Amino acid sequence: MNKNEIIDKLKEKNIRAVARLLTLIENEEKEAENILKEIWNFTGKSYIIGITGPPGAGKSTIVDLLSKMAIEKGHKVGVLAVDPTSPFSGGAVLGDRLRMTSSQETGIFIRSVASRGHLGGLAATTRFMINAIEMLDNDLTIVETVGAGQGDVEIVQIADTTIVVEVPGLGDEVQAQKAGILEIGDILVVNKCDRPGSDRLARELKMMLSLGEKKDWMPPIVGTTATNGDGFDFLWKEIKNHKKYLGTDRKAEMRLKRINYELENQVSQKLFTKKMVQIGTNEISKMSKKILERKIDPLTAVEEIIRE
Ligand SMILES: Nc1nc2c(ncn2[C@@H]2O[C@H](COP(=O)(O)OP(=O)(O)OP(=O)(O)O)[C@@H](O)[C@H]2O)c(=O)[nH]1
Ligand SMILES: [Mg+2]
User: Fold this and answer.
1) pTM assigned to the model
2) What is the mean pLDDT of the segment spanning 278-289?
3) pLDDT band at 187 (very low <50, low <70, confident <90, very high)
4) Who is most buried in 19, 35, 68, 90, counting CB within 10 A?
5) Ligand 1 in contact with 59 (CB < 6 A)?
6) Which CATH architecture has domain 42-247?
């Protein structure tokens, strides 16, 4: 399929065209950018739920259950599992890929991809992948990302509702992480409630929340056991609550802020690269030598390079 064929097929909600575009984005092909430019108008219509948390917390199992629930309630669902590292050797993501087959029959479109975010950061790339899936006219997109530092924060740039999954028994070293996690979660899920320690973890999280600043939206804590579905009615209810809280105004405002932030980032990055090319490394190394020899101070050196 060439570019125009893909675009035509995308407009017909063709699953293979969507899969093709996702691969192009994944492989950082220039063609992906050309297609994305053409379909922008048709995207942005789905409600986005982001699920993040430490490896093995049960995110995929939760996504699986949630998407099936959503289908039952009449939604059309797209699922994206993003692994920022190199997932193709990883068992868990292979699991996601396999699940893709079984879920397709139920009308869920699932795709797991690797992304190192070369189209302008992980958040931007994930956003483009969501746009690709949105060509299928799904009203709900669920995105799973591994919560390993940066990725955590980036998911907030994408999702309308961010769910942070925690599990008991990870030890005290995650303690420090939790504070940051509380910042980004609209809903906190304590999964694996069939295991000991879940009550304690829920209490801890509640404590930490009560110590933090008061906000309009205080994240609820939901206990789940993803392997048997316990707590999912409550989780669904809280997702609906948060969606209602956002309404159209808060959601639009939030999305605008993010677009603004992303645009600023992209423009400054592009400008930076362009300027650096103009200045050239030669100029920089000449100046470095002068600084070393005390012929110029580093502060003036920067000013002079920029002035030129
Ligand atoms: N006991 C118990 N096991 C669970 C629960 N939820 C998930 N699991 C198991 O935990 C393991 C990891 O689940 P996944 O859903 O793959 O976890 P994940 O967070 O997606 O993992 P990564 O994508 O690798 O980060 C699987 O063996 C699940 O069956 C739960 O509520 N209780
Ligand atoms: Mg997973």
Assistant:
1) 0.85
2) 90
3) very high
4) 35
5) yes
6) 3-Layer(aba) Sandwich (3.40)
Q: Which ligand is nearest to the CA of 166?
A: 1
Query: Distance from the CA of 281 to the center of ligand 2, in angstroms?
Result: 43
- Each residue's pLDDT tens digit, 202-246: 998 898 888 888 889 999 999 999 999 999 999 999 999 999 999
Q: Which residue has the higher pLDDT, 180 or 205?
A: 205
Q: For the chain, which residues make up each domain, given as ranges?
A: 42-247, 264-307
With the most atoms of ligand 1 within 8 angstroms of its CB, the residue from 60, 99, 164, 165 to mutate is 60
Q: How far apart are CA 113 and CA 82, in angstroms?
A: 5
Distance (angstroms) between ligand 1 centre and the Cα of 224 equals 12
What whole-number distance in Å separates Cα of residue 93 and Cα of residue 75?
25
Q: 191: Cβ below 6 Å to ligand 1?
A: yes
Please give the structure tokens belonging to residue 194: 């069939």
Residue nearest to atom 26 of ligand 1 (CA): 58
In ligand 1, the atom with minimum distance to the C-alpha of 53 is 19
